[in-house]
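Q: Could you fold this chain for me?
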Amino acid sequence: MTMLDSLRSIVQEVNSARDFAGVLQIIVKRVRKTTATGVCSIYLHDPVSQKYVLAATEGLNPEAVGNIQLASGEGLVGLVAAKAEPINLDNAEAHPNFAFFPESGEERFRSFLGAPVIHHRKVLGVLVVQQAESRRFDESEEAFLVTVSAQLAGVIAHASATGQLTQQFSPDIAKSGNERIFKGVGSVPGISIGTAVLVTSPADLYAVPHRPAENIEEELELFQTALEHTKRDLRAVHSDLSERLNMEERALFDVYVSMLDDNSLGGEVRILIKAGLSAQTAWSEVIIEHIRNFSSMEDAYLRERATDVRDLGRRVLGYLQQSQVQQKEYPPDTILIGEELAAPNLADVSVEKVVGMVSAKGSRNSHLAILGRAMGIPTVMGAIDLPWRELDNCPVIVDGHQGLIIANPSRQMLRTYKAQIQEEKILAEDLERLRDEPSLTSDNQPIALWVNTGLRLDSLLSLDRGADGVGLYRTEIPFFMHERFPSEDEQRKIYREQLEMFAPRPVTMRTLDIGGDKALPYFPIEEANPFLGWRGVRISLDHPEIFLVQLRAIMRASEGFDNLRILIPMISNIPELESALELVYRVYDELTEEEGYQLKRPEVGAMIEVPAAVYQVRDIAKRVDFLSVGSNDLTQYLLAVDRNNPRVADLYHTYHPALLQALKAIVDGAREENCPVSICGEMAGDPVSAVLLVGMGYRVLSMSATNLLRVKAILRKVTIEQAQKLALRAMELDDSSHVLEFLESAFTDPEITRLYSRSRAKSA
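A: Sure. Below is the predicted structure, expressed as structure tokens.
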């Protein structure tokens, strides 16, 4: 087997490992075998002792695990950690850093190769192979160890975040009742305290929560019923396909059935149930173990059998879940938690009971996050290190401001957050008094505060908060609500309801903006780099049959209201814009001149969200009635940072000097062409950013309705001149953190600071 094959096999085994300790054992065993060395060991950094501790070994005395500890720079292992680079020695004893540990039970190994395990610039551990004889490991072996270390880095980082690493070092202080803090992406601001209710995907073996059996006899009976249903299904398929399959292929179904018997998988599961596990937990653990075993086999045919076992596992699990679906209870303080929550998960629970939502996968633009914003439910997405399987029925705090999930919070943490909830409640009551007040700066200059909407709930909340208009209506929302492209009349009814609700206030309808992370289920877009691919107006121009129907529906919906504005997204060049405008005007002419509709010609605008558009802003402004800056996409495109990717989310800075200069260039260019310009996105809805934008020259801000009153409150406390001075100074700074520190330090009035103060908890 080549080193590449070995690496693939190791990755497969690691992915199927039951726990972190199992991962470490797989690594040391397989690496030792592949490199044909006497010893392979893993040393992990203990954040408590600040030392590198022997965590797993193949070849040393097992009792040395946990007992050999080295500080950074101490011994050869500590030297690898300190230098953060591999060390390859054929005579380790001659090195000044060599250290011998008799308790390891090792002979004096002369050869040493160590590679650091690094994650996000931090050395998490050291992977070592040793040989008794003098041996210079070759380049391929060194590269192999570095590659395995890179694979191991993510696993260790995840173990650290989920508390498994702490349990590895200090089992006594890593009990389930201890407070743990996890980081995600804050998608809906707010704080909620409640009880986690696990939501799992149907028949997902790896999503089964670890639960004990409440009644062993009932669990055994439940398991037996699921087996009988599965056997019946397999026999039925065998019968239906008997004429199409040969004897060997038909025999496969007989093998499936026999695997469920007591002397095979069925028997193993019954043993675990009798030991106290629920049927679902026991079944998933047995199946995952067999999948791991098959996946690690060298024979290709046997390796493929892992797929058969996985399929069988899902079939039985499906029946186990069906029988227990009615048993799930939702307390009045439910916090929904799962690997990948989606909008349909809300169908099984009364929305009144849901106080928070957390998803290990997903982005702030997912349907669930959009629903969360509409309903005002604090939501955190993209919590990739969250041990969601372990949190069912666990007390949890969801901090939607900072994107934190705090499991088993301490009394002190609960007091802190309860006080903050009370503060927010008082602030909300105070802000409510501003609902009908005009949006003015303290020197009486008007600033229009518009809202971003897409759902009826959004619109109702926006009206309740006193919005001056709609700066962004996401027309793609109705497309997501159907199992096919909605018809012209279906679209018209939805759009008309929106226009009617806000009349006579302006409603800016962005044309279909799918692609990127917003693919329709019935119109999938498979791309290697979707954010730089086929999305927004590019799709609309390539599919005029879809675009023209939408334009007709939008314009027909506006008859009698005259408050429609049309916004074209993702403009990156002039020909693209002119092609889109041509279709807009064509539809208007057809409706008014040929079909007799009494329509006011809608204003048509372009979205500035692609860096190329920043440099052509004047050329674009000459051709449209208004401009709208999409700050979210402009930021990620300008900084080359996907804000939904946890690996680089820390690089997504809305105060980056380059972004501030781009925003200033846009508003200046629009002013030179006498073209109105607005800005929508998270920056517009952040109170501190709003002051900065006003100082740059923006006079129309569009945001989530939940932020509108906070922004109104802070703007009423500053003058245009003050905002301009802040913006001028901020744009002279060379780092985003300095910009934020400067802006926040500029406000000392407690009545202002409470409008943007952040939670004080820190992620682990």
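A (continued): The first strand starts at residue 39 and ends at 46.
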